[in-house]
Amino acid sequence: MILGRITGNVVSTIHHPIVEGRKLLVAERLDKNGKPTGGYVIAFDAIGAGYGETVLILDEGNGARQILDDDNAPVRSIVVGIVDAVELESS
Amino acid sequence: MILGRITGNVVSTIHHPIVEGRKLLVAERLDKNGKPTGGYVIAFDAIGAGYGETVLILDEGNGARQILDDDNAPVRSIVVGIVDAVELESS
Amino acid sequence: MILGRITGNVVSTIHHPIVEGRKLLVAERLDKNGKPTGGYVIAFDAIGAGYGETVLILDEGNGARQILDDDNAPVRSIVVGIVDAVELESS
Amino acid sequence: MILGRITGNVVSTIHHPIVEGRKLLVAERLDKNGKPTGGYVIAFDAIGAGYGETVLILDEGNGARQILDDDNAPVRSIVVGIVDAVELESS
Amino acid sequence: MILGRITGNVVSTIHHPIVEGRKLLVAERLDKNGKPTGGYVIAFDAIGAGYGETVLILDEGNGARQILDDDNAPVRSIVVGIVDAVELESS
Q1: CA–CA separation, C45 vs C41, rounded Å?
Q2: Which is more confident, D60 or D32?
């Protein structure tokens, strides 16, 4: 899993039926300190994440399909948690 | 999923039978602002995408095979939507 | 598999039920000499790893689900061993 | 799928029985304009590709095993087509 | 598959039972000319590879599990051949 931040969404009128009715979130990838890395993923949402929120993203297709309970979902990335904090080791 | 833009197609006369009859699109990868990243994928088409169009590409083999409804498709990347707009968070 | 070092954990109050009750470790990726590479993964824990420990991380979903003995685990990365030493060839 | 060019092959006398009798091609990765990227893959051959030829390479294990019709093939990359041309959009 | 060179091994006293009894090799990744790329993988061994040897590494979990004949092996990378030579095209 990786950390991301929801920054937008994709609008698509023409698409494969299997995409129908699913919100397509744009999430920028974050490093472990919460800074954007420059990368992004387009992810489905399993928990109701909002713009600007830091989230936990599963980036593995078979696991993602099991969460959606849909063996046919065209999915690789899915938002599975809202991140309250990342507690880093201090020494 | 990732964002891409259709920039061409691959012509292949000699190929494995399983590729027969499928158009092979060249799609450059885009960042979340729609700028080319320098990377590309060769993708099948599930929706009828045209040259120059910004598209949504699923880059995961098992999901892609389910969209084509063909368990034997030699596929990793498939175009699943035409992107009208990417709405980015503004604050 | 890759080498990592546990540097923290993710706190998430709102999440998909399937994440419930699992500790989410932040592990920085290490190179083969044990130096951080700058990358990280968020991993589940199968062995009771503690902060600062160097660990062995499996980064492949199907294998990770088998270790957790849970076909539905939303997992790609899992800590499977604590590393005592990396013995490098000397000539 | 990606574009590659066959540049050599790997000679291996001692190997797992499952590799026996399969030619191991070295293919350098090409960008969408046909320039080498510096990367490479070692691929099996499903079509009879020759040295110097530009080819289409599937880089996904489950799809590759289906092409070889061998559920046990230790394969991730396989050559599935010879590329005659890459037609790029001109405006 | 990729080319690697065995440079060491990982010592782990505390680990998941499924790792028990398997040697964990450290293999640096090589480019197609046999030069180290800076990357590495930790791999299981299917053929009896020794330190300093150039090897062929399969980096795909499902194929790797089939080679070990163990559906539960926590594995992504496995050494499947010792490389005698890489024959590159000369023109």
Answers
A1: 12
A2: D32
Question: Could you tell me if residue A90 is inside a domain?
Answer: no
Q: What whole-number distance in Å separates Cα of residue B25 and Cα of residue B45?
A: 7
**Residue of chain E nearest D61, judged by CA positions:** E60
Report ipTM for this prediction. 0.77
pLDDT one-digit tens code per residue, A11-56: 998 888 777 888 899 999 999 888 999 899 999 888 889 899 999 9
Q: Is the confidence at residue E35, as pLDDT, over 90?
A: yes
Tens of pLDDT along C26-73? 999 999 888 999 899 999 888 889 899 999 998 877 777 777 777 666
CATH number at residue B56: 2.40.50.220
Using CB atoms, list chains with 3+ pairs below 8 Å to chain B: A, D
What is the C-alpha separation between D29 and B40, in angstroms, rounded?
12
Q: What is the pLDDT of residues D2-23, one digit of tens each?
A: 999 999 999 998 888 777 888 8
Q: Mention every residue, 6+ apart, whose C-beta is less than 8 A from residue E90.
A: none
Q: In this complex, does chain A touch chain D, defined as having at least 3 beta-carbon pairs under 8 Å apart?
A: no
Domains in chain C: how many in total? 1
**3-class SS of residue B19:** helix
Helices (H), C1-91: 61-68
Residue D57, domain member (yes or no): no
Tell me which chain B residues have a C-beta less than 8 angstroms from the C-beta of D65: none
CA distance A58 to chain C (A): 7
If interface means Cβ-Cβ distance under 8 Å, which residues of chain B face chain A? 1-3, 31-32, 46-48, 56, 58-64, 66-67, 78, 80-89, 91
B and D: touch, per 3+ CB pairs < 8 A? yes
- Token pair in block for residue A84: 């309250």
> pTM for this structure?
0.80
